[in-house]
Amino acid sequence: MTYRAPLDDFRLLLNHIVGFDSVSKTARFEDATTETVEAILSEAAKMCEEVLTPLNRNGDLDPAVLENGKVRSSNGFADGYKAIADGGWVAVSADPEFGGMGLPLTVTTAVNDMMVSSNMALHLNPLMTQGQIEALEHHACDELKALYLPKLVTGEWAGTMNLTEPQAGSDVGALSSKAEPNGDGTYAITGQKIFISWGDNDFTENVCHLVLARLPDGVAGTKGISLFLVPRNIPDADGKPGEANSLKVVSVEHKMGIHGSPTCVMSFEGARGWLVGSEHDGMRAMFTMMNNARLGVAVQGVGIAERAYQQALAYANERKQGRTAEGSIIGHADVRRMLASMKADTFAARAIALSVAVALDMANATGDAEWQARAAFLTPIAKAFGTDTGIEVANTGLQVHGGMGFIEETGAAQYVRDVRVTAIYEGTNGIQAMDLVGRKLMDGGEAAYKLLDEIEAFAEGARAIMPDLAEPVWQASENLRETTEALVAREVSDRFAVAVPFLRGFARVLGGYFHLAAAMAKPDGAEAKLAAFYIKRLLPEHLGLLAHAREGADDLMGISPDDLAV
Amino acid sequence: MTYRAPLDDFRLLLNHIVGFDSVSKTARFEDATTETVEAILSEAAKMCEEVLTPLNRNGDLDPAVLENGKVRSSNGFADGYKAIADGGWVAVSADPEFGGMGLPLTVTTAVNDMMVSSNMALHLNPLMTQGQIEALEHHACDELKALYLPKLVTGEWAGTMNLTEPQAGSDVGALSSKAEPNGDGTYAITGQKIFISWGDNDFTENVCHLVLARLPDGVAGTKGISLFLVPRNIPDADGKPGEANSLKVVSVEHKMGIHGSPTCVMSFEGARGWLVGSEHDGMRAMFTMMNNARLGVAVQGVGIAERAYQQALAYANERKQGRTAEGSIIGHADVRRMLASMKADTFAARAIALSVAVALDMANATGDAEWQARAAFLTPIAKAFGTDTGIEVANTGLQVHGGMGFIEETGAAQYVRDVRVTAIYEGTNGIQAMDLVGRKLMDGGEAAYKLLDEIEAFAEGARAIMPDLAEPVWQASENLRETTEALVAREVSDRFAVAVPFLRGFARVLGGYFHLAAAMAKPDGAEAKLAAFYIKRLLPEHLGLLAHAREGADDLMGISPDDLAV
């Protein structure tokens, strides 16, 4: 169960596919040259391969547990976390003013990808901190920034996100946690939160909770929600963690996977908190965290896909069964098909995730609204397709192992169990799809059509050189354009019925585009063969998905709950 | 976590969709009237709902373990097994000469479906016994039959299948277990077997192992393999379990799911065995077991899909989140889509499985080779599509639960973990697909074309009444016919590269046919609405699958192991 960071894939993707050169050319990111990025990714790769990977199984076998009200983390996780923090890998993109490296989010995304592959459960801790850093950078007052950001950036302190309550999951606006002004500028936070990833740990000095709660004059729904920073230990005059705050971990959930990541039920009992942003404006800050986290979760799917692929490939190269030219099961056509599918889909999902990161970096560097719209449009696609791909690839990886895959010692099953949650948290994949066909088509399809224009222009340019690959991509894009037009013409509520197949159809076409670009960049390489595999065998899935997406809502909603009864 | 047996679905399927009336009309099965079958299924349903269902979670939480060389089963499983045995549910179709009910396999299939839904891990025990009974009925000598069958049929003794060895999984012919004649008509069996479901238990008097091994003069490969019956306790002169045989359970695997079913490593150390069938003819008997077992495993997929669906439906009806007309999340279009997909696919998978059973019953009752060919053709489709559907539906069921789905207490995750193995054992789904495009197309496509003729004739008859549904089914069938022709025209080895998408495409079209039949039978019912959902939204998946299936093998095999390296 080793892991080798896919540095060649990152090199190809950044330099030839997702347009990272534009990022390097901006004034903001001029230091992020190809050489610098290469050096940084190599360094991160080393830490992931050598330190985090060997700890991954510990998280599964020795789950984080609650002991005397404190979380005890899995054996070795404290050392793993120290390596992440010491290397500066918690917050690669954080503002240098507060100790960050100020590197593009694209670099963070690639580093996260490798950390997920090597240890998803542990990496979820710094991933939460990354979201908190971004929320504080954008919305906190200067005092809070000065006090908290340096500690979070170094990883001395960890951050969490406290959104969900038992009756308020996807419907965040239904939350009932309360905030009362203490009269000294602080607030007393009271309520119960569930599904809090890394709600506590035993390796950082402090744990800082970002908590959504409602002030006494907050209206019902999302518009009455405010965001508070609630530290486990209240910083003293020297900024050191002092007095314990009135909050606790009530329990740690028994989950299907990521056992190394304690999922906590948190109780806030008049805990002292500090307002982040304006009163009643918590949702805006939450969306900052969520957008960051959605890309982070997309990459969890990609990272697990990569790891599951590598393990399945190693097994297929070693396992002898039946007569093949290669001497191992990799010689069987169906095993080859499974491995090629895994690799091709992982590539597509990674390309989409990195495209979001590039668009965000360009938006940050240039302030251009078009890049912002591109990032906003691609984010739900990256999240849903990335995580669905993680789930599918992990399952295929298990299948490659045959009977051994079902035996826990092999490790393939852990990936299946770990990655399953990624389709759920930070907005279920159904919610992502509703976001795509709802909010992200409110521009009348402008962002979508710009992407399709880009795809078709590229396919037209490639047509003379690789007609077999360029033509199907162009055709698929046209089909997608017509489907998008059909959706835009409908009421938003009618689009929801087909949101999921539309999102997946869009992702399939994007995958075709990125594979075509890879083939054009490396026409004589393995990339071109894999692109042909994807475009001829996997891309056709869009036909059924888009046919589904062109159906209306009435037929579906006409199937009543009674019709569904057994 | 209750379960309600889908008796209405069975009624519709048997009476209107899969042609069970033909079975009832045969002399062999003339007792299996509609009324009798209804009564039997109702009785089985009661046992499943009331006795087996409440024990299901015990199997997961209190796994079967090895204690002092003996398997200790999960809490309550002994009682559950007693209810199965006492009700006569072990072997509904066994020969009345040996105490069986002699009912059609179609009835067994429906009963198995319900037992799987209520407790897959426990039901795997009698499922193995069913396979053993069928193998002995067909291949054992009269003395073995007289001694063993009455005990197996009542469930007093249990049966197992010992095929796999560490180096001989899918490639059974590579096995190294040995059989030496003892000179008294018995044989000494020596070797290690792995992945033996219910290799031991603590609730039957005896456990009878069917073991594949090679005689001293057996040639290498599958043609040198013989089958032996090796009881844990050697029956004494009165047919009572006596002296312990030289065999033992070495260990019980730690698996992703079905924790209640002990998966054993077995060691045979000169154990006394009796030959079943002729020397070196073990593979033929094994195929009898395997064919039975493949249908049984298909139904494991269907049964778990049903259970996961019922739980997700109950959750969706109760869970409040966001504003909907229904007051619960079932009012959200995407939740409705998920539930409709689950129900529609479960129906399709169940119809395919029952069609196999009907074809086997007709073949048994009439000796007609055409029915035999139909059963043989449909079996790999039923197995692969049934289990893939089980996996997909269980995953969708988990998704309907949102964050709660990932928490083990909810139960949704258990279905995902339990059902995962069904795509692997009794021949991986890749092997099923290779069987379909290889052995099952060796007739030049005759069995396939007969099925397609039947589908198209039905669709033509339905066209005037339900053109919106009949036409897409007819078109899909034509597309499938062309794809089948393309495959038949190729070398068998070239078909393997696209075997999986071809099998799934075939299943999708069969599902369209059965849904169309349901709509025609119940034009004003929920069935017609669900059929429209399937045909318009899920059936189009065949477009991408069949496009994939029409691709050749060269492009795939041209992706070398080096091309796949990271």
Automatic annotation (TrEMBL), chains A, B:
Keyword field contains Flavoprotein: yes
Q: Keyword set for this entry?
A: FAD, Flavoprotein, Oxidoreductase
Residues in domain Acetyl-CoA dehydrogenase-like C-terminal? Answer: 451-559
- Which cofactors go with this protein? FAD
| Catalytic class of the enzyme | oxidoreductase
Q: Which GO terms describe its molecular function?
A: flavin adenine dinucleotide binding; oxidoreductase activity, acting on the CH-CH group of donors
Read off the SUPFAM superfamilies from this record.
Acyl-CoA dehydrogenase C-terminal domain-like, Acyl-CoA dehydrogenase NM domain-like
Catalysis performed (reactions):
3-(methylsulfanyl)propanoyl-CoA + oxidized [electron-transfer flavoprotein] + H(+) = 3-(methylsulfanyl)acryloyl-CoA + reduced [electron-transfer flavoprotein]
Q: Which residues form the Acyl-CoA oxidase/dehydrogenase middle domain?
A: 161-269
Q: What is its EC number?
A: 1.3.99.41
Q: Which residues form the Acyl-CoA dehydrogenase/oxidase C-terminal domain?
A: 281-436
According to the record, the segments passing through the membrane are none
Coiled-coil annotated residue ranges, if any? none
Record carries keyword Oxidoreductase: yes
Q: Which Pfam families match?
A: Acyl-CoA_dh_1 (PF00441), Acyl-CoA_dh_C (PF12806), Acyl-CoA_dh_M (PF02770), Acyl-CoA_dh_N (PF02771)
In the record, the note on similarity to other proteins reads:
Belongs to the acyl-CoA dehydrogenase family.
- What is the designated name of this protein? 3-methylmercaptopropionyl-CoA dehydrogenase
Phylogenetic placement of the source organism: Bacteria, Pseudomonadati, Pseudomonadota, Alphaproteobacteria, Rhodobacterales
Q: Which gene encodes it?
A: mmgC_1
